[in-house]
Amino acid sequence: MSGQDKSRGGSEGPALARYIDHTLLKPDATADAIAGLCEEAMRYGFATVCVNPYWVADAHARLKSSEVGITTVVGFPLGASTTAVKATEAAAAIADGATEIDMVMNIGALKSGRPDEVGRDIAAVVAACAGRAPVKVILETGLLSDEEKIESCRLAQAAGAAFVKTSTGFGPGAATVEDIALMRRTVGPEMGVKASGGVRDLAAARSMIAAGATRIGASASVAIVSDAGGASGSGY
């Protein structure tokens, strides 16, 4: 998918589902839980499932004949892996069937005044994906000042990433309307912005989309779309 999701402009029920990466990144997730995630994604029409790299092949086996994509995470959740490891992880995930890559930015390098290294880290993952999968860069906004958020967005954009994303869901804080609006202003209209972390209901999803989000990462996806008029179900 491009940075600007084609569903933008309609946010209820099935159209809202196309904004959502249906997410299960818990360390104790089981094969049965991943299977259930994939079944829900097909049932409700979510954009992708988002799973840890180990589960990509399982998800691909279940989703390969569907329109649901597969997002996986790289350098997760700290962003402190070496660049070579991140690039290798991304390439391996694509070989297993991943269609989108959510990488964690090197937060410590940014805070150490090493923006060139941050940019090279992102660019290496983008190159490893070689046009086969868009890259979303997780900023972990709860650890950054507004100035650092702006700098991170600009570095991600310059490195060829397709999206900037708020949070891993494992760090401090959560997605906020203010951060989404700041990120959208910084990257302009063409790049994707993903709200992730703490988006658990329809009102929160609507507010993120209104602020400029073109994708939402959520584990409570079913609850969100059910409240929007989708089929009944319960979130995680």
Describe the protein's architecture and organization.
By secondary structure, the protein is α/β, with parallel strands linked by helices. The chain has a single domain, classed as TIM Barrel (Alpha-Beta Barrel). Helix content is 43%, strand content 15%. Helix 4 links the parallel strand 3 and strand 4. It is globular and about 45 Å long. The N terminus and C terminus are likely disordered.
Question: Outline of this structure?
Answer:
The protein is 43% helix and 15% strand.
Low-confidence segments, given as residue ranges, are: 1-11, 231-236
SS element count, helices: 10
Query: How many discrete structural domains?
Result: 1
What is the helix content? 40-55%
Q: In the CATH hierarchy, what is the superfamily?
A: Aldolase class I
How would a crystallographer describe the biggest sheet? 8 strands, parallel, barrel
Tell me what portion of residues adopts beta-strand conformation.
15-25%
**What is the highest CATH level, the class?**
Alpha Beta
Return the CATH topology.
Answer: TIM Barrel
